[in-house]
Amino acid sequence: MPSLSSARASNAAFSPPNLPTALFVGGTSGIGQATAQALARSTNGNAHIIIYGRNRSAAESTIASFPKSPQSQYEFVECDVSLLKNVHTTTSELLTKIPKLNFIVLSPGYLTSKFKDREDTSEGLPKKLVTDYYARWKFIYELLPLLKKAKEAGEDAKVLSVLAAGKGKPIDLEDLGMEKEYTLLKEMGNAATYNDLMIESFATLEPTMSFTHIYPGIVRTPIFHPSPSSYFLRLLYPLWYILSYFFSFSPKDSGEYHLYALLAGEKGSFRRGPKGEVLKEGEGYFGTEDARKRLWEHTIKVTEAET
């Protein structure tokens, strides 16, 4: 398990001969934002960083914090990833806009207070499951040509999905879309296992690339702030925030660990913990070859992916 100082040293030593291009989906706040900032620092601004998200002012503030160099290329693209049609629109634009892509970091989040009821999008899909899984899969699948271009040029081609590695649960292969039964707890367990299977499937499809699923632990990000309507939670929040310092990470430290996890591992699939450490084999894992195959076929159908 790397220490924070060793993770920082490893990140600081990152010095690619090329100008790396990185896409951060959900990079306007929290872990995605912190990881983007860590990459900008480690490259001294010699990077092309693209942030996808919904909050333009937050993205512009994040970009303003990046170090600048003559080669710096920073941009924001507004996108609500809870709709798969939006994902397809943005990936299609990227395919025509940039020549290659070295890194994809996926950390979109959706916090709901509904433990039993589904909250469906206008496309008829569970909103949380879209941001936790379907949209992530679609970004990777549709941007594979750009990752391939990077790999063909002898450059890095790596993907990091930030969710819940090691926290998976058994999944019902007869209800992969959770049409028969949906609860928040079931979705969280399913999505963790889906992400495990996702990175394994992509690593099998593209064995020269690196695909990582990471569990960030508890990070002091805005997603844990109570809503204005939650009076009781707002009363408890100051106490929780103080106590959390004993068992949580600051966004900046977490960003360093996530960048370390992104850059580590040359090829294959990896499941990692909060400090970028590789998880023990089988830890919180519930995948099988049959599950990988059936989830892949299900996802192709749901996302209307071209095969």
UniProtKB/TrEMBL annotation:
<dbReference type="Pfam" id="PF00106">
    <property type="entry name" value="adh_short"/>
</dbReference>
<protein>
    <recommendedName>
        <fullName>NAD(P)-binding protein</fullName>
    </recommendedName>
</protein>
<dbReference type="GO" id="GO:0016491">
    <property type="term" value="F:oxidoreductase activity"/>
</dbReference>
<dbReference type="InterPro" id="IPR036291">
    <property type="entry name" value="NAD(P)-bd_dom_sf"/>
</dbReference>
<dbReference type="InterPro" id="IPR002347">
    <property type="entry name" value="SDR_fam"/>
</dbReference>
<keyword id="KW-0560">Oxidoreductase</keyword>
<dbReference type="InterPro" id="IPR052228">
    <property type="entry name" value="Sec_Metab_Biosynth_Oxidored"/>
</dbReference>
